[in-house]
Each structure stands twice: as structure tokens, then as C-alpha cells.
Amino acid sequence: MSDEQRNTVWRFAMIFIVILLGFVAVLGKIIYVQTVEREAWLKVAEKQVPTRKPIQATRGNILDCNGYLLASSMPQYYMYMDTRVPALHEKNGILFTTHIDSLAHDLALVIKDKTAAEYKARIVNAYRRGEKRLKVCDHRINYLQRQALEQNALIQKGKYRSGVFFEDQHRRIKPYGILASRTIGGIYGDGGGGNSGLEKRFDKELRGIDGMSSIQKIGGRYESVTEEEAQDGLDVKTTIDANLQDIVENTLMEKLQQKQAAWGCAILMETETGYIRAIANLDRDKEDGKYYEAQNHAVQRVEPGSTFKTIALVAALDDGKIDIDDTVKVTRQPWQYFTVKHTDAHPMDTILTVRSALAVSSNIALAKLITRSYEGSAKKFVRRIEKMGLMDSVYCEIPGADKARIDVPKDTVTLSKMSYGYSVELSPMQILMFYNAIANNGRMVRPMLVTSIQQNGEDTKRFKTETVKSSICSSRTLKDIQGALHDVVWDNHLGTAAAKLWSRKAQSNLVSIAGKTGTAQLFVRGHGYSARRHRMTFVGYFPEENPRYTCICMIEDPQYPYDAGMDCGSAVRVIAEKTMAYTGCYIYENDTKRLIKRD
């Protein structure tokens, strides 16, 4: 081989080696990128993908029975400014300097939280620093404020010349303030789900479905492009009547303030349908002494006291253990039953009928009657109460509502205390449900707070009244108990809610009321039952001859002289009179400003 040929082969060999080494280097780089640098390059790639952002759906409204807003999501806005936009810096910033004074003036005029000079200083400083996202105002502004600001000459030039833009936020508001606030419930933050009350129970319907947008570069500018439209939440129409709610809440508030009680609740229910027309829960704040809606006492169980006597007597009457005219002896002295002494709030040496024992609310009489009827068969007593429907958990739409606790007593001593409302626990709503059944000719209906789910004012789902028990007892027992509850209010000699001396208690000359008082000693942990601290209740229905409403008022731990009939009974009387006036059964006489029956 000649030298020239050898040189040619060598050159080709060198070229091949260079190509091979280049290929190896490229292959090595590919492997290195796909392994060692994989995560870093993936992050770079992600940055090139258009930024996606959810479009928050507007949460549905909660309405009263007349369509008035009880809770609603109102649009509010954060106002920002990108001080770096080129238009604000062209020609030595003439656009910015020309309009900064008018912008600062309008901000001070509309938002009213800073002076024009303060706004100007804030924006000018941000402009010099080149801030991309200046929060012009520290807090959110409403729709009307945004509309007013959008009339400003600089803002009218659009966000790509003015740098000003708004970001939507939906804020949950309650137009009626604390009115039924705890029952309506609340949400987590401004865009979160329901955390209590109807907001929680119907969160799925109210929440809606969020949409999606993305930031994409279009025509040299970044624009927000909607990919999926948000579907706004549905509305929840309740049984609550805002006007009746106002009556009930104000009446309860007045009583609590008079007695400086720890808390109180009052519920007004439509007898036939079970619709809750008003529900108030008020707690005294330890700091300022004022009352707020804090806990939903309406569905939290407590020892009911003497309101349970009616339940005990229905059981004994319906089981044929006693008759309404049977008699029982009571004395001024306590009745000793094994280890327990039973006493009366109104001690007397007399013989009472079963009917009058309920009217005067005698603990001794009830303890004797129930132990005599169920001694050795306490289980039958509890089972009979269960058959009435009180233990059914299907009631009310409030999440976390307590179930009734009526356990079979282990001994007869406990049974004797159960007869007048100790060692058992019921919520005010369950007590109301039972007495409503008495008013409703024995038919027990589930208390209802929601009648329908709506979209754009049209029902998409309706809820009907649910019957828990078609009859809680025989018609004879029902008639006997109705008569006894009449005496509680209208027997001026014995009735615990009847007129005495200067107090009218539950008696009204406008609307007839029947019902039952209840007073229970409070159990203080570490000290037992306190003779000085009590829970008062009155539950009744009206008009007695043709009941339309059932109402309960419960007041916890009053600090001043108190009486269940005088305080809770009179509260229900006031609610009854104003309710009947509002619903058109009574009208105001122009001259005397008093209520008279409508002809």
C-alpha cells in the first residue's frame, strides 16, 4: 500500500472515530438528561404548560319560607395593580403621572379607609420598586365599590395599560344577623364547605361545581381562558319564617336578659306539617354578658324535668295501669322511697286525681303512680315509651342532633326518679315533637326545616311531611291527657302555668293555650344536683280547640327569682299572641292598639 493510500485510510479512520465518539457523547447526554436531570427538565416543561386555575362556583342561597335570604354568597373583590406594565413607563411615565392623583382621590372617596395622599404614596412607592402585584386596598371591596372605581379614567384603559385588575372572592353573609344563625350554620373560610347546621347538612347541594380556566399567551399577551364553566350551587328553601323567627328570638332574648340565664332556646312548630317556623338558641357571652347564637341547644339532650311527666302518664294510661280519675295521696312531708326522698315544689296534704297531679306537677304523685304501675316491670315502661316514637332518630336536618336517652332502669329507685324527668335525657326538639303529637290528635310528625331544593327559583327536589307514628296512644288516653294539659294553664287553683295573683303566666285572653311546665335541678359535677340552680321549660300548643302551632321555651340556670310557668309560660304566651296576629287570626284594633279576634 502506498503512502497516499495509507494516509487516506487513516483519515477515514479518524473521521469514523470522531463520528463514533460524537455519537457516544450524544447518547451519553441523552441518558444523563433522562436520568440525572430528568426531574429538573420536567419542572421546566411544566412551566411551559398554560397555568390552570379553578373558577369558584357561587354557593347557593338558604331561603326562608317566603323566599327571603337567610344566607347568601355575595361577590367581593381584591384590587391589585401591576406597576410594571410597559404603558405606565412609556414616555417617562406620563400616563402614570397624569392619572395617579385622580386614582388616589377616587380610592379614598370610594373605599374610605385611607386619605388620597396615603393611597398616592403607597402606589408611587410600589411603582418605583416595580411591584408586580400590589394589593391596592388591604381588604375586599363590594360590587358597588368596584363599579364606582371602574369609572376612573386610568382603570377604564384596561389592565394592560393601567395595570389594575380585580380578583373575585365570594363571602358568605347572613342578612338577618344572628337570626336562626346556629341552625343556618356556617362554612369554613369564604370558599370552604359547610361546617355546621344546614350549611353542613346540604353542603353538596349548596356547594356547586367549580370550573377551570388557564392563562395562555394569545397575540403576544397572556389572557385568562375559560375551559370549563362553573356550575353555581342550588338554593335550599327552609320552613323558617323570618318574621316569626324575629318574634320568637326577641321574646326569648327579653326573658334571658331579665333572668340573666346561661342560655335559652325556643322553637315554634306548625302542628300539622311539622314545619319549624322559628328556632332560636341564645348563649350568654362570659366577656360582655350579651347573648349570641353559639350552640344549637334545640337538638342537645338534657334532663327534661316535669315535661316528662306527661310521657310517663301516657305510658301508664295506655297500658291500663291507671285511670285518669284514680287518686293518689300526697303530703307536705317528703315521700321516702327506699334511699330517695321525693319532694314537691308545691307541698300539700291532700288527695289528687291523676289529672290534677299533672296540673299541679306533683313529683310525689308521679313517683307513686309509676312505681305502683311498673314495679318489677320497668322494662315494659321504657318499651312503651319507645313505641311512641320518641327514640326514633329520624328527626330534623341539623347534623349532630342527639338521640334520646331513656335506658331501662336497673332498680325501682331510678324508675321513681324517671317518672318526673330525671335519669332520662331528651332534646327540646324531641320534647316538642311529643307534645305536638298530642296537639295533632296523636299523630307524631318529624320536625322539618327544609321543604325543597331549588335552581333558579324552580324546585328540583321537594320534601314531604314524614309521619313517625300514626298514633302515639289510644284516643281515650289522648283525650285524658289533653284535658290534664288544659288544667295546667286554666285551673287557677292547681295549674302551674295558670294565672296567679298578678301573673298571667301562660293564660291569654286572645288565644287558648294548653301545655306543661317543667323545672329540673341542674347536675353540678363533683357536687351532685343543686337545689339553687335549675332548668325551666314550658311546652304547649295553640289555639287549644284547633291547634295550629306547638311551641317550647327552655331557659337554663336563671340568676334571679324564677318560675317555669311565669317565665317560660309567659314567653310562649307572648309568642302565641304575636304569631296569631301575624298569621291573620287576630288583628290590631286601631284605637286601643290591642289584639282582637278577626270576625
Characterization of this structure:
The protein has 18 helices and 25 strands. It has 599 residues and is an alpha+beta fold. The protein folds into three domains: 3-49; 53-238, Alpha-Beta Complex (Penicillin-binding protein 2a (Domain 2)); 242-597, DD-peptidase/beta-lactamase superfamily (Beta-lactamase), CATH 3.40.710.10. Strands 2, 3, 4, 5, 6, 9, 18 and 19 form an eight-stranded mixed β-sheet that branches. A six-stranded antiparallel β-sheet has the order 12-11-10-23-22-21, with helices on both faces. Helix 11 packs antiparallel against helix 17 (475-490) and helix 13 (363-374) crosses helix 15. 41% of the residues are buried. The mean pLDDT is 89.
What is the CATH superfamily classification of the largest domain? DD-peptidase/beta-lactamase superfamily
- Identify the overall geometry: elongated
Note the main sheet: 8 strands, mixed
Which CATH architecture of the largest domain is right? 3-Layer(aba) Sandwich
What distance lies between the first and last C-alpha atoms, to the nearest angstrom?
Answer: 136 Å
Whole-number count of domains = 3
Number of strands: 25
CATH class of the largest domain: Alpha Beta
Structural class, from helix and strand content? Answer: alpha+beta
Round the mean pLDDT to the nearest integer and report it.
89
Strand content: 15-25%
How many helical elements? 18
- Give the helix proportion (percent range): 25-40%
**CATH topology call of the largest domain:** Beta-lactamase
Low-confidence sequence ranges: none
Question: Measured on Cα atoms, how large is the radius of gyration?
Answer: 36 Å
